[in-house]
Amino acid sequence: MPSFKAFRIHEQEKKIVARFEQLTLDDLAAGEVVIRVAYSDINYKDALAATGAGKILRRYPLVGGIDLAGVVESSSDPRYQKGDSVLVTGNALSETHDGGYAEYARVKGDWVIPMPPGIDEFTAMALGTAGFTAGLAIHRMEHNGQTPQKGPIVVTGATGGVGSLAIDMLSARGYEVVAVSGKASSTDYLRSIGASRVLPRQEINFGSRPLESVQFAGAVDNVGGEMLTWLTRTVDLWGNIASIGLAGSAELKTTVMPFILRGVRLIGVNSDNDSSGTVTQGGSTQIGYGAILSYFVPESRKADLRSATDDLIHHLKADNPRTVATPGGSRNVRIAGSNGLVTMLSNSSPFGGSETDALLTVLRPQGLFYLVFVAPEKEYPLLQDTFQRMSDSVRFRD
Ligand SMILES: NC(=O)c1ccc[n+]([C@@H]2O[C@H](COP(=O)([O-])OP(=O)(O)OC[C@H]3O[C@@H](n4cnc5c(N)ncnc54)[C@H](OP(=O)(O)O)[C@@H]3O)[C@@H](O)[C@H]2O)c1
Fold first, then answer.
1. Which of 99, 133, 250, 379 could form a disulfide with 246 if both were Cys (CB 3.0 to 4.6 A apart)?
2. Is 270 in the pocket of ligand 1 (CB under 6 A)?
3. Domains of the chain
4. With a 6 A CB cut-off, is 303 part of the ligand 1 pocket?
5. Percent of the chain having pLDDT more than 70?
């Protein structure tokens, strides 16, 4: 492979120096998958790393860029083939491993995420780590009971990458969104992406009492410091505060009052090592969140839907003896004009605790079509709608 262009960060005489250079693959940190990078993006952390304003790199020199999307060029990891469209976010990129600001990246197979359906490399990086983090925050808040009916969500650092995408996502999900911004000139922009109110950061009275009057049902905080302290004092009973960033300060000075008197939950969000719903143990990858879609050929070609489904469950149990059918957990459904069966199973989750597996089966001329929707038991109710929408979208090409 000829040499390629990379944006590389050095430490020289205790100063950070970053520049474009020509590199070869041998200059990059070791990994099983070589990716031809199509896009990366610029995050708060990337700016800290490249300017030296924050200590991000723990090894020098390194190619910058905490995320990337591209196409696999070569792979010694059997899960990935040349030509696969993939993305990588976080892990060690631009900390101890060369990152996304180069025409090629070489990364560990466990960090690689197949490009999700409906998303291309440009969109993946337009959303980027900022969008992924905003999504994670909202997911975790909703997992802890946040709903649009409970009232407005305040988003701080609103004009930033995470803030803007959080506003967009929250308003699309039906939340009333209050944006806190230090930029008076951005009010129209913030309204255009879904904020119903904009609070100028400089005009906020942070107060000093352990509990102030309730103003919000929940919060997405990118700022930290006195802003986060104020949020703990002003979020309503059982509200969730997602703590994402420290654009203002890494400090937090509060009391236990919001937590014990209002039941407020402070949720830490870390996009860095999210496992994308899978856990790798002993070389095999287990799905903890997601869907598996396949065909099964029953023992008897004449089997009806119920006996073919029982046959499939028997095979699933042989592969994983901890699979058990939930009592009374089977119902008839119509899928794409055909009779289907949904059978509720349970298993142990690779994320710990129990897992709910909803098994949808439909008899087709080529065998038993099945779709297993997998989620940890306590999160299943939250993801049930998604399963329903996936089931409703099934179409058969005869
Ligand atoms: N936990 C994670 O996994 C994770 C992932 C991504 C990012 N982050 C962190 O989240 C934060 C936001 O990231 P980003 O990518 O959205 O950054 P960004 O695009 O640079 O936006 C940061 C925003 O914070 C506000 N801000 C800047 N300086 C401030 C100050 N001194 N006091 C108060 N507000 C200030 C500004 O918004 P306004 O002018 O509108 O107020 C700015 O647009 C950063 O701290 C970043 O490190 C964490």
1. 250
2. yes
3. 4-115 (3.90.180.10), 127-268 (3.40.50.720), 280-392 (3.40.1000.10)
4. no
5. 96
